[in-house]
Fold:
Amino acid sequence: MTEPYWAFKLYVTAADPRALAEEQPLPEALRRMPLCTKVLCFLALGCPDLGYHWKSLQSEEAFETVRTRLCSILTSTITIAGILLAISGVFITTGSPVQYFDYTSSAPYCLLFISLMLAMIAILTSGSSIIHWLHTDRHWTQEQLKRGGYFVLSYLLSIVTPMFFIAWSLHSFIFAILLAGFSSQSMICRAVTALWLVTYMVSIGMILIESTWKYTTSLNHAGYRQ
Structure:
């Protein structure tokens, strides 16, 4: 009794060395990473290890999905940086319309200028990262990640760095407005600024708690898979 055609076809496909080469296990250099690299990995890819990302490098379709998602995040970063750049530019180039809210003093003005510069750097780094991802190759990425160490760190920083700059730019702008508000001679202005500060601190606390919970959960899942 002869085997059916589909069985022979399945055997040939499984024995194809090119197909077997696609199923590469996670390299040893990526199994044990320091804490700082795990945090960067979580910020860049949403997981504290490179297990899922390494699996996405095994096929062109999965890699294209990851590339599209990262380019979308970087594009959103450019949009946010452009908004911060425009707002900071308006505050720097124009005076305060009211006397009780003076943001042209040395400290708030310096922070507004820092926010402007960081927003510009965020746009540049996001644009360069998008160009890099649009022209990157799946096999080249695999070979770079296999080396571990510096190559993994630079790989993750190319994704996270624009987000760092946009966060620093936003916080510099917020601190500038807070300084101007607390330096005001108006009691109402200082009360509104204090209320804004409380809202800001609560929001940051909630974001940190949620991020810590997601990081711990992802770390536990990663340990369970291993």
Q: What stands out?
A: Residues 1-21 have pLDDT under 50 and may be disordered. The chain has nine helices and no strands. The two ends are 44 Å apart (CA to CA). Residues 187-225 form the longest helix (39 residues).
